[in-house]
Amino acid sequence: MPKKQQVKQQTKKMTLDDLARMVKQGFDGVDKRFDLVDGRFCDIDTRFDEVNQRLDRMEKLVLPDHQRRIEHLEIDMKRMKDIFAVQ
Fold first, then answer.
1. What is the distance between the alpha carbons of residues 31 and 53, in angstroms, rounded to a whole number?
2. How many domains does the structure of the chain reveal?
3. Quick one: pLDDT at residue 57?
4. Which of 15, 30, 67, 86 could in theory staple to 81 by disulfide, Cβ–Cβ 3.0 to 4.6 A?
5. What angle do CA 27, 28, 30 make, to 5 degrees?
6. Torsion angle (degrees, nearest 10) of CA 49, 50, 52, 54
7. Which residue would you say has higher pLDDT here, 50 or 29?
8. Per-residue DSSP letter, 1
């Protein structure tokens, strides 16, 4: 039997259903990967929310204290200017 005929006999005819099945399997694999990525993004979002909450708590503690300290420094600076008569 000539080589061309052997190759033809060995190759399977692909139907549209076969092609559709192959494409679907490929997309199913991609869907699974997207699901994994979505899960990771959810975890990252949760962690960012936790970091934001911590930063908010720190701001509430630090900013008022710094504001109070700045006001005291301004008062002290005014007193020093008055003492040294600096204008």
1. 33
2. 1
3. 94
4. 86
5. 60
6. 160
7. 50
8. -
Q: Among residues of the chain, what percentage have pLDDT more than 70?
A: 84
Specify the higher pLDDT residue, 77 or 18. Answer: 77
Q: Residue 86: what pLDDT?
A: 66
Q: Is residue 4 part of a domain?
A: no
In the 8-state DSSP scheme, what is residue 11? S
Q: Domain range spanning residue 42?
A: 17-84
- CA–CA dist 70, 76 (Å, integer): 10
- CA 29/CA 58 separation, integer angstroms: 44
Query: Is 3 inside any structural domain?
Result: no
Query: Per-residue pLDDT tens for 2-39?
Result: 666 655 555 667 788 888 888 888 888 888 888 889 99
- The predicted pLDDT at position 30 comes to 85
The C-alpha atoms of residue 44 and residue 50 are separated, in whole angstroms, by: 10
- Which tokens is 17 given? 């259903």
Alpha helices in 1-87 (DSSP H): 3-10, 16-84
